[in-house]
Design brief:
Number of helices: 8
Structural class: alpha/beta
Shape: elongated
Radius of gyration: 20 Å
Helix content: 40-55%
Strand content: 5-15%
Strand order of the largest sheet: 2-1-3-4-5
Number of strands: 5
Largest sheet: 5 strands, parallel
């Protein structure tokens, strides 16, 4: 007697990823970035009411948020929300790569951390891993380039990732003028005069981005 064919497997529906406390512009960028992966993840912009009413997370499989976006009280509010166990996995998605910031987010209750410089494929893998309950290794901070201070190394990494002076200032919570000063110091210490030369120098020191 011939055995019946196996029942066809049912495709898993895509994970619903809620983007919390971000601008519509950032959320729209994420939607566009992840559209090629819509069979695996879909993105929704969550209302701020989620911070006060956990039931508003019904149907959300994972929350993506950035506690380190500049704004009065933003970090404290998001980290306090994390500490009160929102009931769904939370993946921090941020420009901020300093070890102390990563530690603050994870200590507060975040389930994972991924940089906003990560490509779409890497972000999707991180989302799926955190949803499965797996750890997502967090980058401990920028490499220490020879001859550069820790802050100069941070600026150089962000510069290599293509961020503008304004974006670097936002990521590091410093003024644009401070960033310009750090960039000049990086140029002087590495013997270059342009960003492309600084990037080439960083690669020669082993930075792979």
């Amino acid at each position: 007697m011939t055995a019946p064919p196996p029942a066809p497997s049912r495709a898993r529906p895509p994970l619903r990823v809620g983007v919390l406390a971000e601008s519509e512009l950032v959320a729209a960028g994420l939607v566009g970035m992840l559209t090629p992966y819509r069979h695996r993840v879909v993105v929704d912009l969550l209302p701020d009411e989620v911070l006060e009413e956990p039931r508003a997370l019904a149907g959300v499989d994972l929350v993506l948020c950035d506690p380190f976006t500049p704004g009065p009280g933003h970090e404290a509010r998001l980290l306090a929300w994390l500490a009160h166990a929102p009931g769904v996995p939370v993946l921090v998605h941020t420009w901020q790569t300093h070890a102390s910031a990563v530690e603050r987010a994870l200590d507060a209750g975040a389930d994972g951390w991924v940089a906003k410089t990560a490509p779409a494929a890497e972000l999707v893998v991180a989302v799926e891993a955190v949803h499965r309950g797996e750890a997502v290794p967090a980058q401990a901070g920028p490499p220490a380039f020879p001859g550069l201070s820790g802050r100069e190394s941070e600026v150089l990494v962000l510069l290599c990732r293509g961020l503008s002076n304004s974006e670097i200032a936002e990521a590091l919570f410093v003024s644009v003028n401070s960033v310009k000063t750090y960039v000049r110091q990086v140029y002087a210490k590495t013997g270059v005069s342009r960003r492309t030369q600084a990037v080439a120098w960083a690669h020669r020191q082993g930075w792979t981005g």
